[in-house]
Amino acid sequence: MADTFSDSIDASAHAFNLILQGFTLIPIIHYEIAFVCFLIIFIYNFLEFHFFHDVLTLFRGSPVSLTYNSASEIYHGVASKCRLLHGRYMATPWLSSPHIQTTFLNFHGRPPAVSYRRKLFHASDGGTFALDWLKSSDVLGDSTCEENAALRHDKTPILIVIPGLTSDSSSAYIKHLAYSTAERGWDVVVCNHRGLGGISVTSDCFYNAGWTKDTRDVINDLHREYPNAPLFVVGTSIGANILVKYLGEDGEDVPIAGAVAICSPWDLLIGSKFICRRTVQKFYDRALTVGLQEYAQLHQTLYSRLADWDGIVKSRSIRDFDNYATRLVGKFESVDAYYRHCSSAQYVTKVAIPLLCISALDDPVCTWEAIPWDECRANKNIVLAVTRHGGHLAFFEGLTASTLWWVRAANEFLGVLHCSPFMHTQKKNPPHIGPESSVDQGPYVNVSNGMVAAITKDPSSSTDNVKLNDQDPFERQKVNDESDAAVRVPDAKNIVSRSSGQTSVKVADLNSIKKWLEQLFQQNRRSTWMLTYIAVISTLPFMGATLYMLLFRKKLKQPKSLK
């Protein structure tokens, strides 16, 4: 028996040795090739390359998907005439990855050479920041234009640019936009954030993701200085969030003819969770945090007095920096409160001027999950253009990657708008009253087509703060149907009548509740039946236990009776 066991062990060891000898007979070059292939596959998927997909589609690119209201005059009168918005976007073949595009933009970007003219803007709170001008005459070399530009009656369009986080007029994508716009005969002014562009912070106010005061002051000042010149605004990344928030806050009372928001984060709370979700996103989180720490280092004296400097130095994420710096300087009770208060998604429905929003589904910094699809469709002034690829603020195109697609698309849209009768003209209206608290307090209910809205006492705000998370956003946004009528939850008014010391409560307006239920079943038939099915399935165990106790209770008591 022992001999048999030892023989089996020897046979196994011999077989193992033969396998090892077989592996040693394979040339080393084969192992190297296998390792390289595995590494290529890993990098291809990790960096989300789409080169092979582009090859299979013969480098035709993917169509631009538009979301808009079917009754929108801005779409039918402006966006429908834009060739780029109805075409296809094809990324530069050797930059066929959102991460490669974004990295290339930040480290190189191939920007054109521009020479700004700087003016300092002095805010009412004592703050100072730089306005960098690029006149069309500086690019076209037309001295006549330069002389006319100094006149108060000049009608040359002015484009105001709001950069992204830690970006200023020296950023590559800002230079692309400024040069391309000035080349078309427009004047460009880049509104640098406080503390950037080589200007020191001269007050206790710093900019943040929802700081609209500087934007409002600059726009009003330019409107007073150039009353006959149409003003347009382009916001990028955090600048786009500031732009949309400003437009929503002031409604029609803005001297802006039209605007474009590029790669807006929309919902900062969703974005903060997204940027630390995957390993590749954490690289961006760390890189942006380092940029914020360098910004804080330039203004250490103020941050040491107004914020937690030790916490700023130890920050390892954007959320950490916002907790130790932005929240304290802005006097928010928590980081989440800051994110909720400064998110622009809640202001989309209040935008009252022509607005083009451009985003990419593969944006590695601002996730598509935060895009307010239904709010954009509900607002007749907004056209949302989404591409499958593009990265964050990159959208390189052509073999040489010398141009940015979104720059051309924004200029085309604003150019058509400028020649149309749909430019916005300022109308005085009561100032927008923001939320009383920066923390959401109301409950949420499902009101229409999977849309989630907060219950408020005001029936006119039934579709505010809509959040939608689609499994396939690119296919979903291709359908540009009519804006769904929001189903309002009626208030159940209780009429309390007192007679003979007794209180009787009866529910009023039953007809409105019945009508609401009918509308709910008509528009949400599938969702309602699904909820009913879930309710039935979830109660089956309790029903089964009850039936078991009722049917078998007597049988369980029979042995005791027999005794």
Automatic annotation (TrEMBL):
Family of the protein in this entry: Belongs to the AB hydrolase superfamily. AB hydrolase 4 family.
UniProt xrefs under Gene3D superfamilies: alpha/beta hydrolase
Name of this chain's protein: AB hydrolase-1 domain-containing protein
Highest taxon in the source lineage: Eukaryota
The keyword Transmembrane helix is assigned to this record: yes
InterPro entries: AB_hydrolase_1 (IPR000073), AB_hydrolase_4_sf (IPR050960), AB_hydrolase_fold (IPR029058)
Residue stretches making up the AB hydrolase-1 domain: 157-398
MF (Gene Ontology): monoacylglycerol lipase activity; short-chain carboxylesterase activity
UniProt KW Magnesium keyword: no
SUPFAM superfamilies noted in UniProt: alpha/beta-Hydrolases (SSF53474)
Lineage per the UniProt record: Eukaryota, Viridiplantae, Streptophyta, Embryophyta, Tracheophyta
Alphabetically ordered keywords of this record: Membrane, Transmembrane, Transmembrane helix
Transmembrane regions: 28-47, 529-551
